[in-house]
Design brief:
33% of the residues lie in helices and 14% in strands. The protein contains 11 helices and 11 strands. The strands form 2 sheets. It has a 6-stranded parallel beta sheet with strand order 7-6-8-9-10-11, with helices on both faces. Strands 2-1-3-4-5 form a 5-stranded parallel beta sheet, with helices on one face. Strand 8, helix 8 and strand 9 form a beta-alpha-beta unit. The radius of gyration is 21 Å and the shape is globular. Bound molecules: nicotinamide-adenine-dinucleotide (NAD). The site of nicotinamide-adenine-dinucleotide (NAD) has 31 residues, from helix 4 and helix 6.
Length: 339
């Protein structure tokens, strides 16, 4: 098995080398992302391995198919960057459905605590021996209402963490699945929550679920946390709501226009994206660059599951982690083979 591995980072390689060797897979590591301009690099490979900001549009899929590439192995859970409908009948798509829900849920809580206790401000001050407390007043999480959108693997862990803090949890999910969660309408999430955390996938349904209309319905001072996918939040509407003091704080691990920026060192460049630049300039906004997944445990699990998926696909002819666009929930496709 020869796999072209796109958007490689130094932290990817140790675990992928280990599991590649174990399963007899040769990974050829390319630094570049997969795009229409770089797709030719996949010539001669059996599959490609891609991450969240690689572009797997219809044209890339057509070219991969023409070159005889049989499989796209996503080393992530979300698959909004793959044109799944177009892939049907042409190329198989595998993913890592779960690697560490704790990594993402804990990062969401880390962002929330940092934000509401102003740790990001205090850290910079004390490094400069400025021990003043002015402007650092936070609020207790205990007793606050958190609205969780999406109660799957990550949402569930986040709910348990919030309960540990003594918070009241309400939730919205298109497919409610837990008896011990108080499910409410989206409107109630907006009107009743002090904090809203997004843990649903990006789909046509959830695109800009946090937009101007939603923000208008929220409590003044609401905290928005997004560790799922950038386009769940209309960034311009969020910025306007921060400027008007409607939103009290925003914790963003993802951003709708992140693909050309995140994961790279852009410190020597002029940032063209005015909305992101303005958001980052706000004292009550914390941005991390799609880092919520990045724990040792998650990296190990991602590599092991990806290698296992490729082994299942090439050796057994089917893989339980194959995606199929015909099913709203990936798990509902039980066949192990989309076509
Ligand atoms: P999951 O599939 O276990 O759970 C997703 C939940 O969202 C499910 O309960 C599903 O019913 C619900 N859902 C589906 N459509 C919905 C809708 N229209 N409205 C409300 N809820 C809906 O997924 P997960 O493992 O919990 O991951 C959640 C998301 O987190 C992923 O889709 C991915 O985008 C994101 N993620 C981000 C990172 C990161 O590093 N920032 C890492 C992993 C995953």
């Amino acid at each position: 098995m020869k796999i072209a591995f796109f958007d490689t980072k130094a932290y990817d390689r140790p675990a992928f080398d280990k599991y590649g060797q174990q399963y007899g897979i040769t990974f050829k590591y390319f630094d570049t992302k997969l795009t229409l301009d770089t797709v030719e690099l996949a010539q001669g490979y059996d599959g490609v391995c891609v991450f969240v900001n690689d572009t797997v549009c219809s044209k890339v899929i057509d070219r991969l198919e023409e070159m005889g590439v049989r499989v796209i192995a996503l080393r992530c859970a979300g698959f909004n960057n793959v044109d799944m409908k177009h892939a049907f009948g042409k190329i198989h798509v595998l993913r890592v459905p779960a690697y560490s829900p704790y990594a993402v849920a804990e990062h969401a809580m880390a962002l929330l605590l940092t934000s509401v206790r102003r740790i990001h401000k205090a850290y910079i001050r004390s490094r400069d021996f400025n021990f003043s407390l002015n402007g650092l007043t936070g609020f207790d999480l205990h007793g606050k209402t958190v609205g969780v959108i999406g109660t799957g693997r990550i949402g569930r862990v986040f709910i348990d963490i919030c309960r540990g803090f003594g918070m009241k949890v309400i939730a919205y999910d298109k497919y409610p699945s837990s008896d011990d969660i108080e499910y409410v309408s989206l409107d109630t999430i907006f009107s009743d929550s002090d904090i809203i955390s997004l843990h649903c996938p990006l789909t046509d349904d959830t695109y800009h679920v946090i937009d101007k209309e939603a923000l208008d319905k929220c409590k003044r001072g609401v905290v928005i946390i997004n560790t799922s996918r950038g386009a769940l939040v209309d960034a311009e509407a969020l910025l306007n709501a921060i400027k008007s003091r409607k939103v009290g704080a925003a914790c963003l691990d993802v951003y709708e226009e992140e693909s050309d920026l995140f994961f790279e060192d852009n410190s020597g460049h002029i940032l063209d994206d005015d909305i992101l630049a303005r958001l980052i300039s706000m004292p009550n906004v914390i941005v991390t660059s799609h880092q919520a997944f990045l724990t040792e445990e998650a990296l190990e699990n991602i590599a092991e599951t990806t290698a296992n998926n490729l082994n299942d696909f090439f050796e057994k002819g089917e893989c339980p982690n194959e995606l199929c666009f015909r099913f709203d929930k990936a798990e509902d496709c039980k066949t192990g083979k989309c076509f």
